[in-house]
Structure to design on (305 residues):
């Protein structure tokens, strides 16, 4: 049998119907779905909306430099391509008859070598997580991967504002009127346990405060997670903490990640310097940070191990 070049371009031809009123962004539902390139025909349209993250996950490695989207600079505030994912967030809503083409090429040379998605304006649902299946899978494998997508969608919903102030920070949706105080990390002392504070910020309003820390776990160290948190005054008095969240489940050797410590409404008792301690219950390794201030009139000054 002769060999035919294995190049497949999937382009959905969409016919514009009667114009209808678009629901408000708050009324739209985040949707997860799987898209199989083995099916015929293939519906390669993806519903997108302003301010909502959409992640396409692939079962094959991509050629990142070959991933091209129309309106990259004019329509998107975020567009990130990794080995097996494409994540983007529109900064404007598409008009009713507007269509943007997203072209993705695969790195292994197998068929199909290319897929073209059509980005369309969302109606009542937004495609938050789309799993693109290019290879034949067993039913058991598909069920397992669907569970992973569901977990990713749950995390995505938390990052889109449903998780309180910490969720706002993770999603980038911050009220510009809040108070922001930066932690000075210009000359942190040596830390023998391999944990380092790369940068830190305190976000504060009248009703909540969040200490956001970018923590590095040095190479050669065991994995670390901030499972334990303690906030105290320099006199040893405890300050209640509502929650601690990490961008990643844990930091492997050489990895850095965001740690968010959420505190209730700052009171007059919080006008003094505080010390924050983040510890891994398994390994006992603790990162201690002094010079934390919750009052806007104070300056965050210094960090330590």
């Amino acid at each position: 049998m002769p060999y035919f070049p294995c190049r497949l371009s999937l382009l959905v031809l969409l016919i514009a119907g009667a114009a209808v009123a678009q629901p408000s962004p708050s009324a739209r539902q985040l949707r997860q779905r799987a898209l199989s390139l083995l099916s015929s025909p293939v519906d390669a349209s993806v519903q997108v909306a302003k301010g909502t993250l959409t992640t396409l996950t692939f079962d094959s490695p991509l050629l990142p430099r070959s991933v091209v989207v129309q309106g990259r600079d004019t329509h998107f505030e975020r567009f990130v391509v990794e080995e097996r994912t494409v994540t983007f967030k529109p900064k404007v809503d598409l008009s009713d008859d507007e269509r943007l083409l997203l072209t993705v090429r695969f790195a292994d040379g197998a068929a199909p070598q290319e897929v073209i998605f059509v980005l369309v304006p969302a109606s009542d649902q937004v495609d938050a997580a789309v799993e693109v299946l290019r290879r034949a899978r067993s039913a058991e494998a598909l069920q397992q991967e669907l569970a992973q997508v569901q977990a990713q969608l749950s995390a995505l919903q938390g990052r889109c504002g449903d998780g309180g102030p910490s969720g706002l920070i993770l999603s980038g949706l911050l009220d510009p009127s809040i108070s922001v105080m930066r932690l000075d990390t210009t000359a942190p002392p040596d830390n023998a346990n391999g944990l380092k504070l790369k940068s830190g910020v305190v976000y504060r309003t009248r009703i909540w405060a969040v200490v956001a820390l970018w923590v590095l776990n040095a190479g050669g160290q065991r994995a670390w997670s901030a499972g334990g948190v303690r906030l105290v005054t320099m006199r040893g008095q405890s300050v209640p903490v509502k929650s601690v969240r990490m961008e990643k489940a844990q930091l492997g050797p050489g990895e850095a990640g965001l740690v968010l410590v959420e505190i209730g409404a700052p009171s007059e008792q919080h006008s003094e310097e505080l010390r924050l301690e983040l510890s891994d219950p398994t390994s006992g390794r603790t990162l201690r940070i002094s010079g934390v201030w919750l009052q806007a009139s104070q300056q965050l000054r210094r960090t330590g191990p």
The longest strand covers residues 195-204. The two ends are 67 Å apart (CA to CA).
